[in-house]
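Each field is set out as follows.
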Amino acid sequence: MIGTLVAQSGAARFSWNLFADLGQMLSYEFMRNAFLAGAVVSVVAGIVGYFVILRRTAFAAHALSHVGFAGAAGAVVLSVNPVWGLLVFCLGGAAVMGALGQRIRERDTVIGIVLAFMLGLGVLFIALYNGYSTEAYSILFGEILGISTGDVVLTVAIGAVAVAAIGAMYRPLLFASIDEEIAVARRVPVRALSVAFLLTLGLAVAVAVQVVGVLLIFSLLVTPAAVADRLTTRPAAAIAVSVVVALACTWLGLAIGYYFSYPVSFFITSLAFFAYAVTRLSTGIARRSRPTAAVPAA
C-alpha cells in the first residue's frame, strides 16, 4: 500500500535531475530501510550464491525457501515477526538436509521429502490464519517496501553472521566444492562443511525472502552467481561480480519501483534475468568467434 502511494506520487514528480530524485526518494524512511536491507541481502546472496552454483545446491536453496515459507506462515499465525519463523525453520531444515543427506543421491531425496512436508505444513498454517491475505502475499512474493527499522537491524545481524561463517570456512569449503574426493583424502572435514554451508544457506534464504519472497528466491541467490560464473573462473572475482550484479539489480529495481505502482520484486527478478540472458548471449558469441587452433599435420 505504501509503495503504491509513493509510486503514484513519485511518477508525478519525476524529473531528469537524478540527484534531486534520489534525494526525494531517500527522504522516506521506508525507502532508506529498503535500500539498506536490499544492500545487505544482495551482499549475502552474492557471496553464498557463488557456492550454491559451485556446489550445485540450487535445489537445496529452492527447498529452503519453501521451508522458510512454512516458518513465516507459522509465525504469522502466532502473531510473531515472520523473520523469526523464517530463521528457525530455515536453520532446522538445513540441519536435517545436511545430517541425513551426505551423498548427492541421498541429499536430493532428503531435500525432496523435506520440501514436500514443509509445503504441506505451510498450507496448513495459511488455512489457520484468519488475518489479511497481504501477510501471506508478502511471504510468497516479498515486500521490501514494508521492512521496518527493526527488520533492518535483524537483517544486518543475520547477514553479518552468514558472511562471517563463509569467511571462516572459505578455503576448505572452496577446496571441498571443487574436488570433494581429494578433499576427503586430505582429511578436510567435508561432512561438517556440508552441514555448515547448508546452515549458512538457510541464513541467506531467511534474509532474501524478505526482498523477493519464496517464489522468486532464485533471482538473488542463483542468477547473479550464474552471471559471475560465465564471466570469470577466479573465485574471488566471481564472488565480487556476483555481489555487484545482485546489488545493482536490487537497487535499480527499488529505484524503478519508486516511480511505478508494480511489485518491486518483479523489477528485481526481471533485471536479474536480463543480466543473465545478456551475459549468456554475449559470452556465447565471444566463444564462437574465437579462432580455433590449427591441427598440426601428421
